[in-house]
Amino acid sequence: MHILVLVLDLGGTFVFAISGAMVAVRCRLDVFGVLVLSFAAGNAGGITRDLLIGAIPPAAIDDWRYVVVSVLAGTITFLWYPVTRRYSRDVLWLDAVGLAFFAVAGAEKALVHGIHPLMAALLGMLTGIGGGMLRDVLVSGIPTVLRTDLYALAALAGAGVVVGGYLLQVAPTAAAVGGGAVCLALRFMAIRHGWRLPSAGSEQASATDKRDHDRAR
User: Fold this and answer.
1) In whole angstroms, what is the distance from residue 30 CA to residue 36 CA?
2) Residue 42 burial (CB < 10 Å; 0-12/13-18/19+)?
3) 127-to-9, 14, 37, 154 alpha-carbon distances in Å
4) Residue 157 has pLDDT above 90, yes or no
5) Measured between alpha carbons, how far is 135 from 29 in angstroms, rounded to an integer?
6) Claim: this prediction has a pTM higher than 0.90
7) SS3 readout for the chain
8) In terms of pLDDT, which residue wins out, 28 or 208?
9) d(CA 106, CA 146)
10) 82: burial class by Cβ within 10 Å (0-12, 13-18, 19+)?
11) Can you give the residue ranges of every domain in the chain?
12) CB burial of residue 210 (10 Å; 0-12, 13-18, 19+)
């Protein structure tokens, strides 16, 4: 179980670190800024999860491999950005893979530490979306998870499958594969077909704001 969580964690760290570095380069940050955003995107979700479940110090700080993977991803992106930019669409797909890795790893690690299954699923989702949210906040953007197609819901579904497998006493590896497949499938379909949750329309929001203003007067 520990090896499975480590592999999933490092895989997700590398993918999300690349996405963070690409955003940093687009925002014209210097090399230090690129590496900082790379580490933040790759590890924020895992650090938050570890702090919440009491796994102190967090793996991303205690294990040198997380730092090396993050720095490697950031350096590759910084040096060869013209090449990586050509594959920005592929990075979007890799982001889906990283989301699946983190959602599954987060749920698995929470279960290992004796967290209630319901909270383990939520922690799996948090692990998946945490890095991207911090990345967007650092570059003064609205977090993608709050305004894009199915993202957090896909992570929650994947983590839910892991938790369901745990409750049914399914082998951890099989549950992880199933949860990752569900998360990937939802993200792929959302990217390809633009699936998204309903959002408030601008006209509806404006009408609501006007009514609230009139009531205040």
Assistant:
1) 10
2) buried
3) 10, 14, 17, 12
4) yes
5) 13
6) no
7) CHHHHHHHHHHHHHHHHHHHHHHHHHCCCCHHHHHHHHHHHHHHHHHHHHHHHCCCCCHHHHCHHHHHHHHHHHHHHHHCHHHHHHCHHHHHHHHHHHHHHHHHHHHHHHHHCCCCHHHHHHHHHHHHHHHHHHHHHHCCCCCHHHCCCCCHHHHHHHHHHHHHHHHCCCCHHHHHHHHHHHHHHHHHHHHHHCCCCCCCCHHHHHHHHHHHHHHHC
8) 28
9) 20
10) exposed
11) 2-194
12) exposed
The pair phi, psi for residue 140, each rounded to 5°, is 60, 40
Q: Cα–Cα distances in Å, from 187 out to 81, 148, 149, 153?
A: 25, 11, 8, 9
> Amino acid identity of 180?
G
- The model's confidence at residue 72, banded by pLDDT at 50, 70 and 90, is very high
pLDDT tens by residue, 39-69:
998 899 889 988 988 888 888 888 899 999 9
Q: What is the pLDDT of residues 91-149, one digit of tens each?
A: 677 778 888 888 998 999 899 888 999 999 999 999 988 888 888 888 867 776 766 66
Q: Which tokens sit at 150?
A: 């199915």
